[in-house]
Specification:
CATH architecture of the largest domain: 3-Layer(aba) Sandwich
Helix content: 25-40%
CATH class of the largest domain: Alpha Beta
Shape: globular
Distance between the termini: 16 Å
Largest sheet: 9 strands, mixed
Oligomer: single chain
Number of helices: 17
CATH superfamily of the largest domain: Glycogen Phosphorylase B
CATH topology of the largest domain: Rossmann fold
Number of domains: 2
Number of strands: 17
Structural class: alpha/beta
């Protein structure tokens, strides 16, 4: 099968969050199974060019119809850790992908609408005819719309689209100008409630809604989050649209790439280990303390790795830090804030705790250090307000670091409470879960693994090993996506 992934990220060359990891990991899994996979990405000025091999001109003069004229683009080709990627660079005065960042500008809807148009134009002009075009998040939501309203009539009538939503909170809301710019034009037609009109703003178009309506299959990144989006508040206004298209909507749990996240082969940690050699994990704990200038003591290390923002339950992260210290544990944090307010709050905490030998706050992101924290920590706290899938808990389980998670989204699908989860026998439980987003609920969950570590070390070791036994690789999601691709191809 010939599959083209179209996305705004692909790790490690373009990574702002979990989207990049998923695009790379799924592509690799499909290729390992013998399928042909290509990726189409924006050519950002700030991407990691050191992760691209053999970057060269692939299509020098791609002219993309846009806003009554055309924009000249160059398409470059290179390999990102074995994946064949095409990078589209528009040559225009706005410098759409020369901003020194991936997202965050007022014209983001225009930039990514153009990228979607350019991706289709590249496929058409280069005579590439994939069996499946797999699009990701709001940035490519207009691609299936343009495919079935424009490009279908220009030689691309047999292509099928799978559309994966990683985060319902960001949907791509814009006005009427984009219709003329993309060549879709017919305002009354697209402002129909059954097509692109936003469910709550009658004067706005919604890219993500367009992706749902026009794609052949729609997925999100865990079964429980699919339920939350369809029936609860986490669809952020798209619940009715998902209901109208429920026959093509499902949740497929993300995987993680065990060639990268695997303590038995991890080159970023000083001591490799597996579930039968957890003594080496203790050596990584010692190395982590030395790296972060923590004192050497007989205490568990509690960690948090992730963005500091409301989605990640930042108020509970703050409380977990002080609760862990109060319970005689050490605490390590690695993450950058997404707002000035949150950044200022944690900079204040960092200054306040600077001389505390049991706490270290690293207010940035460092890939190498993240591997050492996963390997050296005993407990990982993931107190998210919402979490479509979550990769932190999956990596933690592989590294024998016991996750303490809030019972939302993919966290529910992957972590099973040691003491209370009756859906699994005791030997299949792998962490701790709490449900309410308040300090008391967090304390009830966090105190239990700290207490187990102090009072029953063999029980804690067994829990580590039960978590490490789970397979959250891309193998099973790969099966599910291939079945889905075959299904939509048969239509």
């Amino acid at each position: 099968m010939y599959i083209v992934q179209v996305a705004s990220e692909c790790a490690p060359v373009i990574k702002a969050g979990g989207l990049g990891d998923v695009v790379y990991g799924l592509s690799r899994e499909l290729e390992v199974r013998g399928h042909t996979v290509e990726l189409i990405l924006p050519k950002y000025d700030c991407m990691r060019y050191d992760h691209i091999w053999g970057l060269h001109d692939a299509y020098k003069d791609l002219y993309v119809p846009w806003d009554g004229a055309s924009v000249h683009c160059s398409v470059y080709c290179g390999w990102v850790h074995g994946r064949l990627c095409f990078f589209i660079e528009p040559h225009n005065t706005s410098g759409w992908f020369h901003r020194g960042k991936y997202y965050g500008d007022d014209d983001d809807p225009v930039r990514f609408a153009f990228f979607s148009k350019a991706a289709l134009e590249f496929l058409q002009q280069s005579n590439k005819r994939p069996d499946v075009i797999h699009c990701h998040d709001w940035q490519t939501g207009l691609l299936p719309v343009m495919l079935y309203e424009i490009y279908k009539f220009h030689g691309m009538e047999n292509q099928r689209v799978c559309y994966t939503i990683h985060n319902f909170k960001h949907q791509g809301i814009t006005g009427t100008d984009i219709l003329h710019a993309t060549g879709l034009n017919r305002e009354p037609y697209y402002f129909d409630y059954e097509r692109l009109r936003d469910n709550f703003n009658p004067f706005a178009l919604n890219y993500m809604k367009g992706g749902i309506v026009y794609s052949n299959a729609v997925t999100t990144v865990s079964p429980h989050h699919a339920w939350e989006a369809h029936h609860g508040a986490f669809g952020y206004g798209l619940g009715h649209t998902l209901h109208m298209h429920q026959s093509k909507f499902r949740g497929i749990l993300n995987g993680i790439d065990y060639t990268i996240w695997n303590p038995s082969i991890d080159a970023y940690i000083p001591n490799q280990y597996d579930s039968e050699g957890l003594d080496s994990k203790e050596l990584n704990k010692k190395a982590l303390r030395e790296r972060l200038l923590l004192r050497h003591t007989e205490a568990p290390i509690v960690a948090f790795i992730g963005r500091l923002d409301d989605q990640k339950g930042v108020h509970l992260v703050h409380h977990a830090m002080y609760r862990a210290l109060a319970q005689g544990a050490q605490f390590v944090l690695l993450g950058s804030a997404t707002s000035a307010v949150i950044n200022n709050q944690f900079q204040h905490e960092k200054a306040h705790l600077n001389d505390n030998p049991d706490c270290h706050l690293e207010l940035s992101f460092n890939e190498e250090l993240s591997h050492l924290i996963y390997a050296g920590a005993d407990i990982m706290v993931v107190p998210s307000n919402f979490e479509p899938c979550g990769l932190t808990q999956l990596i933690s389980l592989k590294y024998g670091t016991v996750p303490v998670v809030r019972g939302v989204g993919g966290l529910v699908d992957t972590v099973f409470d040691r003491d209370y989860d009756e859906s699994k026998p005791p030997e299949k439980r792998n962490g701790y879960v709490f449900y309410q987003a308040d300090n008391y609920a967090l304390e009830s969950a966090l105190d239990r693994p700290i207490g187990l570590w102090k009072g029953d070390r063999s029980g804690f070791t067994q829990l580590r090993q039960q978590g490490m036994a789970y397979d959250y690789s891309w193998h099973r999601p790969g099966d599910q996506y291939l079945k889905l691709y075959n299904h939509i191809q048969a239509k």
